[in-house]
Amino acid sequence: MANFFKPSTKKQPTGQVISVLIDRLDHNGIGVGEYKNKSIFIANTLPKEKVTAKIAEAKSKFYKASVIELVNLSEFRVKPRCHHFKTCGGCDLQHLSFQEHLAFKQQKLIDLFSRNNINTNLPWQESITSDALHYRRKARVGVQYNKLGEPIVGFRQKASNNLVQLKECIVLVEPIKHVFTILTSLIKSLSLVKSIGHVEIIYTQHVSIIVRQLIPLNEQDKTLWKNIAEQHQWQVYIDNGKEVTPLTPVTPLFYQISEQSGISTKHAAESVINIYFEPKDFIQVNHHVNNQMIIQALNWLDLKEDDQVLDLFCGLGNFSLPIAKKVRSVVGIEGLQAMVDKATYNAQMSKLNNIEFFQADLNSNWGKEAWAHRKYSKVLLDPARAGAYGALVQLIDLDISNIVYVSCDPATLAKDSQLLISNGYTIEKIAIMDMFAQTKHIETMILFKK
Ligand SMILES: C[S@@+](CC[C@H](N)C(=O)[O-])C[C@H]1O[C@@H](n2cnc3c(N)ncnc32)[C@H](O)[C@@H]1O
């Protein structure tokens, strides 16, 4: 039977201009009010602000609208420091006073814990704070091309897959905050058009640029990259999708866990730890918060000389190495063999012979692995955003009394916490770590005990 289009007889409010009082922020930092008994989401607004807005979308359960005028301003509204803030999707909270960011993040955690039936009277500890700006040492920068084939170099626009052309990014550390204009004019000058997918930028000891090359580079373009690298003292690597190879002379990449972290020197003469890594390896993006986070994890684990510690999702040994300086032994488990090899190398370079690293997919069945049958007194876990539910179901059987859980995703943290609580653990301490300042993202640490 043929389907005939029937125009709806219901009046659609799209385009209508209305007045709304914002009463809260949603988990993405977007203002929410109420209109005709439904939630209405209006970006760039704050609680207690009265706004005039135009309805952009009317769904069965909610509306979306865009601001026309802020009738009164929140006492916490500040002028965004970045002139790209309105369009760039990288930051979410620049219009909110920095002092209020932690309250927003804490409330988001409380909401998620409440949804998972966890008592929200939580033992909050002082947050680890970050510099509000210039804290991020690593970023993936998108490259797209307009109809004329000209490059657009930047981050995604808010609520869109299109990129915003950036001039600078003020959350990036100083040495890399201006790379966008240099990259844009370089990519424009390349002979191969549309040859780059994205560029990763890292600043540790040097500026390293990893170019995701979609088609092989020709000699002419290699020379252009080499010249710009020499001019700005960049290390340039080419990622062809299978392997990453240096295009310019490079020195090994590493970052330091600094002396200030108060790591005792039981097992090694040096109190600075170098963590060597490859261009594509995971590293914590905020160097300062990482150092503070390690100190806190060591304190919360209350490490003793004869402790035997398990470090799950250990990556390059970011936590395992400093822990090993204080205890009898550490076993680190990581999914990627290349990271296991690098972590082992890092332990050797720090002359730590009380750590072993093993490869395992922690979310599949690992109960039969030999390392899972050893005795551990304490465990630290630091999973990716997907959380650690599959790992925790098995970890519970190891009956370890102290667990420090470091999380970069509050939704999976809440679900995983509920699992631990229903298996006899209690939350002894919880703290936010502002690893991703100006954004909605939250890093959290919880100490569970039983
Ligand atoms: C958030 S990173 C933390 C790494 C490290 N703890 C650090 O501080 O740098 C999460 C790590 O878990 C690893 N990972 C992700 N899924 C995994 C899985 N299913 N099994 C084991 N490791 C996994 C990733 O490769 C990554 O190294």
Describe it.
The chain is built from eight helices and 20 strands. It has 450 residues and is of the alpha/beta class. The protein folds into three domains: 17-70, OB fold (Dihydrolipoamide Acetyltransferase, E2P) (Beta Barrel); 138-203 and 206-246, OB fold (Dihydrolipoamide Acetyltransferase, E2P); 262-449, Vaccinia Virus protein VP39 (Rossmann fold, 3-Layer(aba) Sandwich). The protein is 21% helix and 28% strand. A seven-stranded mixed β-sheet has the order 16-15-14-17-18-20-19, with helices on both faces. Strands 7-6-8-9-10-11 form a six-stranded mixed β-sheet, covered by helices on one side. Strands 1-2-3-5-4 form a five-stranded mixed beta barrel. Strand 15 (329-334), helix 6 and strand 16 (355-359) form a beta-alpha-beta unit. The structure holds S-adenosylmethionine (SAM). S-adenosylmethionine binds at residues 282, 284, 313-316, 318-319, 334-336, 339, 361-363, 382-384, 408.
Secondary-structure blueprint:
Blueprint: E1 17-25, E2 31-35, E3 38-42, E4 50-58, E5 62-70, H1 98-115, E6 138-145, E7 151-154, H2 179-189, E8 196-203, E9 207-213, H3 219-232, E10 234-239, E11 244-246, E12 253-257, E13 273-277, H4 287-301, E14 308-312, H5 320-324, E15 329-334, H6 337-349, E16 355-359, E17 378-381, H7 389-395, E18 402-407, H8 410-422, E19 426-433, E20 443-449
Parallel strand pairs: 3-5, 9-10, 14-15, 14-17, 15-16, 17-18
Antiparallel strand pairs: 1-2, 1-4, 2-3, 4-5, 6-7, 6-8, 8-9, 10-11, 12-13, 18-20, 19-20
Helix pairs in contact: 1-8
Bound molecules: S-adenosylmethionine.
